[in-house]
Design a protein that fits this description.
The complex is a heterodimer of chains A (113) and B (114). Chain A has 113 residues and is mainly β. Helix content of chain A is 0%, strand content 56%. In chain A, strands 2, 4, 5, 9, 10 and 11 form a six-stranded mixed sheet that branches. A five-stranded antiparallel sheet of chain A has the order 1-3-8-7-6, with no helix packed on it. Chain A is globular. The mean pLDDT of chain A is 93. Chain B is mostly beta strands. In chain B, the strands form two sheets. In chain B, strands 2, 4, 5, 6, 9, 10 and 11 form a seven-stranded mixed sheet that branches. Classes of the chains: A mainly beta (113), B mainly beta (114).
Amino acid sequence: GENVEQHPSTLSVQEGDSAVIKCTYSDSASNYFPWYKQELGKRPQLIIDIRSNVGEKKDQRIAVTLNKTAKHFSLHITETQPEDSAVYFCAASNGDSWGKLQFGAGTQVVVTP
Amino acid sequence: SAVISQKPSRDICQRGTSLTIQCQVDSQVTMMFWYRQQPGQSLTLIATANQGSEATYESGFVIDKFPISRPNLTFSTLTVSNMSPEDSSIYLCSVERPELDGYTFGSGTRLTVV
């Protein structure tokens, strides 16, 4: 089955700096890669996703890149703000069902003012 | 995005008892999913529930422990049976609507077994 590895497990950045989280996946059939943000005590919220026919996608301060050959994808947050502090999860789906997601272990991001 | 109502939001249960968690969606969806998130951990898929068929369980999860119902296209339940403290987790339902808003989670049920 699919295996998703996520790094780093914790990330501390100064406000205004950029944050990058990287994930690798094992199943070459995976074709859907969402990123979720989970604040303490709340549900995971989809912040951006990318499909395998696209190499990069951007939404304001958030961008995701995908390298299918290397089987890795990354989340980039620019101009970080204290409200970006949360746990971020990457996930991958092998295509027979987008919903059957395999999640990474998560990255605790702390943005210090 | 899809509106998913999940209840109860939290509960404290005695070991050996069972708890049924309900998940209601504001639109018809083909597939519903149940995840578990243990304290400080990532999300793990328990099972996939399609209307009109038995749920499909992931490795490590069995129907006797986590029976699931899916009576129609907007509703599902997950029962955590014969609970032990190790079952203390957040349980989340989710739905898939790839043509609309992707994949959305309910608000979760925080279960504590004492």
